[in-house]
Amino acid sequence: MVNELVQIKVTLSYLPAVNFSMQQNMISIIREICIENTTEETLTNLIVKLNFEPEFATSVPIAIESIKAKETLKIEVPKLNLIPNYFAQLTDRFRGNISIEIVDKEKTLSKETYPIDILAYDQWSGINILPEILSAFVTPNHPAVLPIIKRAAFILEKWTGNPSLDEYQSRNPDRVQKQMAAIYTAIVEQQIIYSTVPPSFEEYGQRIRLVDAVMSQKLGTCLDMALLYASCLEAIGIHALIIVVQGHAFAGGWLVPETFPDNIIDDISLISKRIADGINDITLVETTCMNMGKNTDFDQAIKIANSKISLQDFILAIDIKRSRFSGIKPIPQRILNGQYWEIKEETPIVDKSETSVPQTINPYDLSGISPEVVITKQLLWERKLLDLSLRNNLLNIRITKNTLQLISANVDLFEDALAQGDEFRILHKPTDWDNPLFDYGLYQSVSGTDPIIDLVKSELTQKRLRSYLNENELSKALTHLYRSSRTAMEENGANTLYVALGLLKWYETKASERPRYAPILLLPVEIIRKSAAKGYVIRSREEETMMNITLLEMLRQNFNINIGGLDPLPTDDSGVNVKLIYSIIRNSIKNQPKWDVEEQAILGLFSFNKFIMWNDIHSNSHKLIENKVVASLMNGKIEWNLNEINIDAQDLDRDVTPDQVVLPISADSSQLEAIWEAAEGKNFILHGPPGTGKSQTITNLIANALYKGKRVLFVAEKMAALSVVQRRLEAIGLAPFCLELHSNKVKKGTVLSQLRTTTEIVRTNSPENFSQESERIFALRSEMNKYINSLHKVYPFGISLYEAIVKYQQIDNQPLFTIPGYILSGLDKGRLLQWHEALDALISTSKACGHPHNHPLTGIFIENYSSTLKDDAANHINETISILADIKNQLDLLSNLFSEFEPSKSKSNAETVVQLIGKLLEIPELTSALLAAPQLENISSEYTEVCTHGKKRDNLKQELLKRFSDRLLSLDAKKLLLEWNQAANKWFIPRFLRQRAIRKQLFAHAIEPLDKSRVPIVLNQIIDYQSEDNYIQKYEESLSLFFGKYGRKGQEDWQIIEQIVRDVDFINSLILNHTKDIQKATNIKRTLSSQLTDGIATFKNMYASDLTKLVDLFSKLNIQEEILFNTLKVDNHILYNGSDNWLERGLYQLNLWYNNLDKLKDWFQWLLVHKRMQDLQIGFIADQYKNENINTEKLSDIFKKSLHRSIIDYILSEEPSLDLFNGQIFNDTIEKYKRLVADFEDLTRKEIFARLAANLPSFTREATHNSEVGILQRNIRNNARGTSIRKLFDLIPTLLPRMCPCMLMSPISVAQYIDIDADKFDLVVFDEASQMPTYEAIGAIARGKNVVIVGDPKQMPPTNFFTVNTVDEDNIEMEDLESILDDCLALSMPEKHLLWHYRSKHESLIAFSNSEYYENKLLTFPSPDNIESKVRFVPIEGHYDKGKSRQNKSEAQAIVNEIARRLKDKELRKRSIGVVTFSIVQQGLIEDMLSDLFIFDHELERLAYECEEPLFVKNLENVQGDERDIILFSIGYGPDKNGKVSMNFGPLNRLGGERRLNVAVSRARYEMIIFSTLRSDQIDLNRTSAIGVAGLKRFMEYAERGTQITSKVQSSSNEESINHIIAKELTNRGYLVHTNIGSSGYKIDIGIVDQNNPAKYKLGIICDGENYRQAKMVRDREIVQNSVLKMLGWKIYKVWTLDWFENPDTVIESIQKALNSCDEINEDPKNKEIETQNISSEHIILEKNVKEDNKEKIRREYQATILDSSNCYSEEFFFSENRKIILDQINKVIETEAPISRTLLCKRILAAWNISRLGPRIDSYLEELFNWKNYYVSESENLNFYWIDETQYHNFDYFRTGERDAVDLPPEEVANALKYVLTDEISLPTADLSRLCAQLFGFARNGTNVDAAIHRGIRKAEKRGFLKIDNDRAIIL
């Protein structure tokens, strides 16, 4: 140190030696220079100079502007230029110097000299100075290597047949090693002599003989030989190694194409592991074995080298290939040229004869890639969830603890390798490499010329990556990423760890200087921790590589850059085509200045605010679409079958018992329909207009679903909406079973606290009378429904009993007609209309043609009329008169023959005579004997039989006489046939002789030859003939007597006889039918027989002419009657009846008609009407009208009165219960029903609680460690240390749904905590769906099987404050609507509507909304003061400060004054107050004024805010969900100071303004007051098209005018009802009454106005008319409506129609009594609630001492049978007298121990008989005894188990513990034990389950038999549905 003037301290860090190889590889000699100013003053303008002696280097001076006192300055290392020619000439080592001189204005302030060793050209500096520089002495390109390589190729060919030195191309390590061996052998052949190495060469270095020196001198040290071998290996492409050990060096080579991560390897294990057998990645070679005289083969050289690797001697190894990547090049060849050495530069040999072809470029064809992006619903949903702010590292990535930048090269190959499943280890940056520039949050890309790129590329092939961090930093970074990604996966179920491949460098504006970097491709990866020693690796998650759609959406929205062709991502053979994607991006941004794509890779965590929801949609789209609702939303159409019958509440009320759909809170019919449909698994929208009990419905819906064993997910965007339902569930005792997880950042302690509460639940027994009470309610309900249904049942004729009574009482006339019930039973509406029309026609005809009473043409029924018809009628009538006269004369002539028939008395008698005559004229023969014979009917049947026998006899005779003479007929055929048959059974000769003799007898009478076979046939025919002939002979005499000549013997004519028999039978029947008396018939036959004494022929000769004439006349009469019937429709009954002489009657009637035919036309008019009525079954009415001469003018009313009376009687006969109806008894039934329902709601809550509690396992004991119960208990104890909420849920997938079957969540918490693959919820319920965007709802919908969308499309849409405009205008048709509710409506999803409005305590408060927005479909309740409106308009003088403050101070002041007035009044302050403004500005003004007011009056502030419902001031945008008793409106907008009114009303002018108005005007319960400087007539709708403004105008008109909407609805009321009849009667008695009170579909039938207070009703009357009937359920009619009316202050009296019908005066008296009992002052309804008071869970009595009886019954002690020991010898076991004893013993054992194995049963029996073993004989005997008893036997794996009977087998539900062998355990018993264990544990690994079950049976450890028994039990348990096995885990079912 030279210090001339001042003190300056210089510190130099440098290498102590330098040589040519360092110069060649540009290694910096000087590492650091520090200068310290030790003075007390600042030094300025200093120059630092470096000088070298000798001059082996040059340097540029360094300038220092200043250095402060006592400051140490580290200056930048100057660049040294080492002089290569200088080093090339050096042949020996010598000492040089480096001096540092500090100069101030040519004045030297300090100078110091540092020694340095300058080494020879070929000298290595040793391991202490850059040991890796030894790699420079490996010279693969030296010409001296070439002969060795050529020789090696020859040797290799000799060994393998292939001379190719193809390094690693074969991918075969053995091939590589053979190449190393060939090099080794080739060098051995060089006969190189070994030279001793200098001492400690490894520390101090040595002179090295390069390749040419070794080859020329044939001499080399161990290091020389190692370098030679390494040079040859590198020359042929094998990665060489130099190994340095204590005092020695040798070489090696990689058998696989790898390198070490660093140049220098000082860890011996890295080598020893790779040389081990079975690994063989590296081969080490003792290179001195190549020296002359060693005679060591290659394999022995390997063994020697391996033996020299030891921990004590090993120093280091140098990886030559890795050194090349670090830039260490081989030193060039030095050639002596004269006296100077020259360096021969290596230049590639170029063949000048050929010009190389330029490399072909292959640009991507991007012309076919359209910028148009295929838009899908999924993509739009994802876009909506993206974060486009610079906070999102997907748009603005920076190096933080969540990102790790990798040194990048060949990122496309990196992606391919990851896609193929390769694992990569991340290494720290190379220690010999400096980082590039770090700027704008990232390391800049490494230049392609940097040697590190080659290293990165090489290591990429070795599955290694390099980072920019050092080893310690990298370890921390990877640990953080590993833990963070794992936590994210556990908590959110979403992977956030990606490798970002490629960055888009972009700028926010053209003027921006700071670049932003956005990832282009995101490759999902995971970090795997191999071990603490091995560190971490990354690998692909086997998920799809993603395009950064956040980037694409940002480019689309902010820069209008649409990039197409990336969906799906283009691929190549190995994965995603990274290069093509970069080209697409570059092509799209090529016109953007400064933008570019940088091919870098970054490992990091990428997420944003709604990343969980975005990832849920993006990663699970294929799973989401499995849900039918999600699929429908995606496809824009319903994707499930809608052919479902929508239930109606009336059907539920009729068919469903209360225990089938439970209601812990009271519900109306519209709510019940929704509750039922939800439980039935329907998807639908539930419209919930304001005040319709939406949260109450959801609570009931959830409770009912839980009761039915379903799981429910309740989703609400806002915590307020969720809290309302949660409080209601808590109030009914279900809080322990409902897990609230609204926030995705909920604390674990909160969740565990909820779960702990559930574990502490004490089970309760279900109410014993639950089902019984349900049946009682159902019976009462059915009874009440039966009445109202019967009363209003519309019969097919279109009239109900109610309507009949009303119409009956409206007519004054008396009923005269009685319509039979059978006619009414077939009457329909069409027929009834025809009745009325026919009656009108009757009246009209009677007026025109006269009354039909006693008309002369009665009996004529013509169907048409004409003059010709009239003339024809006259002719026909005249002709008939003539015929009748002739018949009369002819009958007189024949009176002596047929007087007994009295033919003149009736035409039927005469016709009988004619028939008799006809038969007498036809019969062939009729003897008097036959006709007069007694019992003629028997004779007819007898002789019919005789004819049959006769015909048969004659046929047989005719057949025989064809072949034989008639003498044959006299043979004794029976005798001959007997002899023939007897001979057939004899020996041949006797048989032949006898049969021949018989044959000869027959042949004697034969006409032709007789075959032997026909002999029996002929004999049988003879026998038959003789039999029939004998039968006929008995009738020979009678045949002749009865049938004359036709019955003579031998001449019988059987055909004629049969005809005679038939004819006589007919005559006999004719006479009997006429007389209906046997004696008279006998007399007639005797009379006729007396005329037949001489036979029928004589009779015919005497009377044939007269008889024939009479027959002809009757024939003509019949023809003429037919003509009259066809012409005049004359009925014989009318023509002939009415007299004892039909002929005279007929002649009289015909003459009457003939004389009055001029009246035929008018009669025809009557006939037409009569026929019309006859066809309609009311001809009797026309007849009664005609016959009784009823007054035509009164006929219509009489008919109607009669009709309705008949209908009343008919219906009462059909419905006997109505006939017995009594109103007072029915009222008592109603009161009983109300009490039962109220009590049943309490029972329902207890039942639900008990059912849910029964599903819980026992938490009172410590569960198994691995069971789900055990896992939960452990996490509750340790507060889930190290376990996220999601992971906990994943660990208890079976237990959690049983503990908390209902979960209350927000959309984001659903995505975070509920795995998409978890078991689906049975039901998902959304509340406030009108405020929930579709893209947020999708994930929750997909986690359920069915969904109920609850909301009101007429209320506020989703809040859109602070959101960007993400609407895709080009794809507007695919864009979501405002909410999930709107989208589901657009799908035409089934809808349900809540219709009953409860909030408004005065109907006028909701009337406007109901009319304007709900089509008047809401059923609202009128109040007793309904006569006046509670919507008041208060005009204010003032103006709107337009264009300035935009306030309306006058309105604000008026509202503040009103608030103050109400707060100061003790009565008025009881009502809560809310203020609604139309703008935020007006809201702020009122709040400021109130603050000013409260400053001076703190008491008012206390009254305003310290109450149950504090005062609020809100605007249209945020008032939804709030309600108050009194709502004060400030319109705000209005005339300005100049009186001009702008049509801009803020939010009302916007789209959806009408929905905001609807929300605002439906917030009041009791009163709404509008303060406004604006009048409705000042709103000009011609100046605006805003729907909201038009609604405001109508609302203000309503407020100004009051009750217009109400009166409009009243005008449409029905006048035909019982209430009008009653009202008329009350009016007649002096009361002022109104009917149909109310502005909606619900009406109070009659209201009696209070005379003392005309603004109120004193009494309301409800009838059982249409208003009553329209209520769908008994609950609506008798509970819901009545409770609301009572709450509103109504005094209600009910009038029953049947009571009124029977005794109206009594009903009027009852009404008067009710009026007299009314209180003068109605109770204030303020504090009364609509809904039944909820009962909290504390009210459910928990019996803490209740034992788990069921569980104890399952586990029992095994009872072994004690049998008395037999005193007999074992041999006596088989004695028969002992059989009964053994059977009794078997029976006793089975009764005690069944089920019991056959083995154990046998043991029990044999032990009692002192028999030691079961032999085959005993076994067979016992089997016989077992079968004799017929026990039930089950079989499992060849093991038999005995049961008492089959019933025991099927009902067996317990298990027994005690001493039994495992083989004796019935599988059914084991199955019960398994169920017992899982009841508490929920799920267990099968191994744990087997162990616990074995312990229950008393087995300390599992063995083969135990495992087999448990296995049999598991199979049986699965079959019986006790459990399921999933991935070796048993889960209870």
Mean pLDDT: 83
Let me know the number of strands. Answer: 55
Helix residue percentage = 40-55%
Strand content: 5-15%
Q: What is the straight-line distance between the termini?
A: 90 Å
- Measured on Cα atoms, how large is the radius of gyration? 59 Å
Structural class: alpha/beta
| Overall 3D form | extended
Parts with pLDDT < 50 across at least 5 consecutive residues: 1-5, 347-356, 1360-1376, 1604-1613, 1720-1749
Given the structure, what is the number of helices?
Answer: 73
Tell me about the biggest sheet?
A: 8 strands, mixed
Mind explaining what this structure looks like?
It is a single chain. By secondary structure, this protein is of the alpha/beta class. Helices cover 45% and strands 15% of the residues. Strands 22, 23, 26, 27, 28, 29, 30 and 31 form an eight-stranded mixed beta sheet that branches. A seven-stranded parallel beta sheet has the order 34-35-33-36-37-32-38, with helices on both faces. A five-stranded mixed beta sheet has the order 2-10-9-4-6. Helix 29 packs antiparallel against helix 40. It starts with 7 loop residues before the first strand and ends with a strand. The model is unreliable at 1-5, 347-356, 1360-1376, 1604-1613 and 1720-1749 (pLDDT under 50).
